[in-house]
């Protein structure tokens, strides 16, 4: 039986340690490839390395791609956000819109006979019905 603990399972810890060592080894090989002259690499017998151009090009391409993705994400979020003049940006517990303000008929969406206003607190339906009952009782 596995007990609840905030520490990872031993298997996950081992996988994480192996990934850490692998990433450190790859970074070390990258630094060797980037800084050691090609004549030394050929002397050791390592002749099938990419050009040194890619030692700078790949990190720059990655950083440019990340920055472009942030700009695109910001643009998509701005396109999906309602304009400042929209009624969708107004929220509140007692907010009510009339049908003329909404610009379309809500007859099929209203559960009650008197559907002159659509209230944000009436989406569940219970609060508005209780308040209408209370107001009718106080009027009578």
Can you lay out the helices and strands and say which pair or pack?
Blueprint: H1 10-35, H2 38-44, H3 53-80, E1 96-98, H4 99-102, E2 117-119, H5 126-139
Antiparallel strand pairs: 1-2
Explain what this protein looks like in three dimensions.
This protein is mainly alpha-helical and 140 residues long. 56% of the residues lie in helices and 4% in strands. The protein has helices spanning 10-35, 38-44, 53-80, 99-102, 126-139; strands at 96-98, 117-119. It has a two-stranded antiparallel sheet. The N and C termini lie far apart (65 Å).
**Spatial strand order of the main sheet:** 1-2
Please identify the structural class as seen in this structure: mainly alpha
Mean pLDDT: 76
Helix and strand pattern: HHHEHEH
Total strands: the figure is 2
Tell me, briefly, the overall form: flat
Low-pLDDT runs of 5+ residues are 103-115, 120-126
Give the fraction of residues assigned to helices. 55-70%
**Percent in strands:** under 5%
Mind summarizing the main beta sheet?
2 strands, antiparallel
The DSSP helix count reads: 5
Radius of gyration: 32 Å
Cα separation of the termini: 65 Å
């Amino acid at each position: 039986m596995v007990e609840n603990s905030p520490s990872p399972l031993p298997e996950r810890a081992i996988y994480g340690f192996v990934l850490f060592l692998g990433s450190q080894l790859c970074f070390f090989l990258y630094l060797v490839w980037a800084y050691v002259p090609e004549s030394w690499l050929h002397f050791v017998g390592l002749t099938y390395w990419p050009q040194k151009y890619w030692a700078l090009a790949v990190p720059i391409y990655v950083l440019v791609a990340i920055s472009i993705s942030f700009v695109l994400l910001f643009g998509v979020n701005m396109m999906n956000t309602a304009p400042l003049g929209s009624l969708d940006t107004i929220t509140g517990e007692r907010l009510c819109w009339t049908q003329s303000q909404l610009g379309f008929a809500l007859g099929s969406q209203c559960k009650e006979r008197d559907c002159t206003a659509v209230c944000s607190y009436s989406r569940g339906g219970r609060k508005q019905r209780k308040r209408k009952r209370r107001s009718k009782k106080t009027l009578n």
